[in-house]
Design goal:
The protein is an alpha+beta fold. It folds into two domains: 79 residues, no CATH class; 195 residues, no CATH class. It is 25% helix and 29% strand. A hairpin with a 2-residue loop joins β3 and β4.
Length: 294
């Protein structure tokens, strides 16, 4: 098949699956948890034929680009999914007044929290209590700031510290695995509050401010690995579970990764502000300015 024909086939496939009704049906009206466990198992098979076919299909359905990957060969599709990047591929903004993006992403809903209410998409609100499940955190982020960061399947899937900080607690909630793409976010109310997630509480070293990252899993991409915990957070690890910890990180240091990928929601107290260029639909990379400290 010529390159032109291959691109034409891919374009037709994207156009077909990009139709909202079809996309929603195929990614949500299926046994989501069963499909997620199956793909998790399949993606870690290291048999060369299975690996090559899996990565080939992944390329067909996405814009996967491996030119920035630290290595060029992979043991499995999962190994490719959680790939590291070449040294220096993501410069980290070192200014002390800047909270950087913890990952590569597309910015979803963002801005000021109205009391304790915020949005997953236009017209679809949810509350801090429903998502965080902790009254103390709810009060800390009342009228605060938030940014929703959506990772597509082809993106770099590791999550890093947004500032010099200490991770003091993780709340793990085992939930559903709805797709978290814009199509689903416009149809399923309180979607983030229904899905599996890890609420990672951090304290900034310089100011003592509380900044929280909520890592939300999704269909086919559940399971979260954090370096400072000795357990893989997945659908078998029933929650909610509160896991106390004490781990320090420098800005830009790796916290862990999604076994595949999904969404990171960043919460900061009142007084923080969005950096220039951070708005719905914007593409942002790990290490670029996200929020400005008071």
């Amino acid at each position: 098949m010529t390159v032109y024909k291959a691109m034409t086939v891919r374009s037709q496939i994207w156009r077909f699956f990009g139709q909202e009704d079809i996309n929603f049906l195929l990614t949500n009206r299926i046994p989501r948890r069963l499909a997620t466990r199956f793909v998790g198992w399949l993606s870690q098979i290291e048999q060369p034929l299975v690996r090559d076919v899996s990565i080939g299909l992944w390329r067909l359905f996405s814009d996967l680009d491996l030119r920035e990957a630290k290595k060029t060969s992979f043991r499995s599709m999962h190994d490719c999914f959680i790939r590291e990047l070449k040294e220096g591929a993501r410069p980290i903004d070192g200014r002390s007044e800047i909270l950087v993006s913890p990952c590569d992403a597309i910015v979803g809903a963002c801005g000021t929290i109205a009391g304790t209410s915020l949005y997953q998409a236009k017209g679809f609100p949810y509350t801090l209590q429903d998502l965080l499940g902790d009254r103390d955190l709810v009060e800390r982020y009342r009228d605060g700031r938030y940014v929703t960061l959506r990772l597509t399947s082809s993106m770099y899937h590791r999550v890093h510290a947004p500032h010099d900080c200490r991770v003091e607690q993780v709340l793990y909630v085992s939930g559903d695995t709805w797709n978290v793409n814009p199509i689903a976010l416009k149809r399923i109310e309180r979607l983030f509050c229904k899905n599996e997630r890890a609420v990672v509480r951090t304290t900034l070293a310089a100011t003592g401010d509380s900044v929280t990252l909520v890592l939300v899993a999704a269909v086919l991409v559940a399971s979260i690995r954090l370096h400072f915990l000795d357990v893989l957070l997945n659908l078998k690890h029933r929650g909610p579970n509160v896991i106390d910890c004490d781990a320090s990180f420098r800005k830009g240091e790796e916290l862990g990764w999604f076994q595949h990928g999904s969404t990171v929601i960043v919460f900061a107290p009142d007084g923080y502000s969005l950096c220039d260029g951070v708005g719905e639909g914007a593409r942002i990379r790990l290490g670029q300015p996200l929020l400005r400290l008071p």
